[in-house]
């Protein structure tokens, strides 16, 4: 799903380029292997200028998490406009399937980042990443509740777990068709809910 306009808060062109480059570099190389110099190079900005916008690597990672949150909120807001909760959930599956090529190359971008950050003990960034999933699960749970599911939270966990599992397998097997086939199964499962 694409937003009608850029929902990000106003920022300088350099800060946006750095955030966009960080999203890509962190996704491709991981948090620990990526340096500010790598990100600056990808953004085509002198490394010294990075510190003008982001005092630390963690500040830049926080900006990347904010981009993930903005994207997720935009998708869920657009899906919430649909009158039927089943169609909202199926639309979410369609959105996941639309990213199958990237997921088969590197896995789910949000899960990849959240998993890496989750290895940090008592870390604020790990908490920020966790909140993305808490919010997603809550939204999905509300859709299942509206469908009259006996255990909406469990159904939400099942849906997200199945997506993340198919993303991992698509990545390991380097086969985007895994997401297509499993996404179709998820849609069929939702038709039965």
Keyword list:
elongated; mainly alpha; disordered N terminus; 193 residues; single chain
Concise description?
The longest helix has 24 residues, at 57-80. With 193 residues, this protein is mostly helical.
Mean of all residue-level pLDDT scores = 92
**What is the helix content?**
over 70%
Strand content: under 5%
Amino- and carboxy-terminal Cα gap:
24 Å
Radius of gyration, in Å, reads 18 Å
Largest sheet: none
Tertiary shape = elongated
Task: Find the count of extended strands (DSSP E, 2+ residues).
Answer: 0
Q: Report low-confidence residues grouped into runs of 5 or more.
A: 1-10
The arrangement of helices and strands along the chain is HHHHHHHHHH
Structural category is: mainly alpha
Assembly level: single chain
Per DSSP, the total helix count is 10
Walk me through this protein's architecture.
The chain is an all-alpha fold and 193 residues long. 77% of the residues lie in helices and 0% in strands. The N terminus is likely disordered.
Write the layout of secondary structure elements.
Layout: H1 13-29, H2 36-43, H3 47-53, H4 57-80, H5 85-98, H6 100-106, H7 109-118, H8 124-146, H9 152-173, H10 177-192
